[in-house]
């Protein structure tokens, strides 16, 4: 994964800088998201890995599959990726682009997983506390995982806070085995 990120970073940075200059971050995020989804299709993967087609043909087919979602600059970006045999990097490019965009906008998406449904008031308090701690606007997504037994697991970008009973039991078992 680290290698894919390393390869994808220059493309993501170029797309981000261009989108920022054109004041089109949301449009580029949407284009990249669709292109990444198309690239992950099994049928598209077969075409992309086929030695029968040239890079230009692969790029043109890919642009056609994306339809009207790609503007001319997005089409050029995809064709450039095809020419460099990097279409498979689109999911990683999209992820990095979203990170660059979130950093610019000073926002972060936070996933809160708990053993039971949390009340909206609790989620609002958690969002406020995380906003102060992280210094960013926070968007909280909540989900339920009954296997946690109790407590919560909070994921904000690369930061993970595991305060679940399941996580505590795993740490205790690890300490006892050490």
Automatic annotation (TrEMBL):
Keyword annotations: ATP synthesis, Cell membrane, CF(1), Hydrogen ion transport, Ion transport, Membrane, Transport
Cellular compartment(s): Cell membrane; Membrane
HAMAP family named in the record: ATP_synth_delta_bact
A Pfam family it matches: OSCP
Keyword Repressor found: no
Protein name in the entry: ATP synthase subunit delta
Protein origin, superkingdom: Bacteria
Matching Gene3D superfamilies: N-terminal domain of the delta subunit of the F1F0-ATP synthase (1.10.520.20)
Family label: Belongs to the ATPase delta chain family.
Organism of provenance: Halioxenophilus aromaticivorans
Main location: membrane
SUPFAM superfamilies: N-terminal domain of the delta subunit of the F1F0-ATP synthase
Membrane topology: Peripheral membrane protein
GO molecular function, one term: proton-transporting ATP synthase activity, rotational mechanism
Keyword Membrane attributed: yes
Family annotation (PANTHER family): ATP SYNTHASE DELTA CHAIN (PTHR11910)
GO CC term (a single one): plasma membrane
InterPro entries (UniProt xref): ATP_synth_OSCP/delta_N_sf, ATPase_OSCP/d_CS, ATPase_OSCP/dsu
Function: F(1)F(0) ATP synthase produces ATP from ADP in the presence of a proton or sodium gradient. F-type ATPases consist of two structural domains, F(1) containing the extramembraneous catalytic core and F(0) containing the membrane proton channel, linked together by a central stalk and a peripheral stalk. During catalysis, ATP synthesis in the catalytic domain of F(1) is coupled via a rotary mechanism of the central stalk subunits to proton translocation.
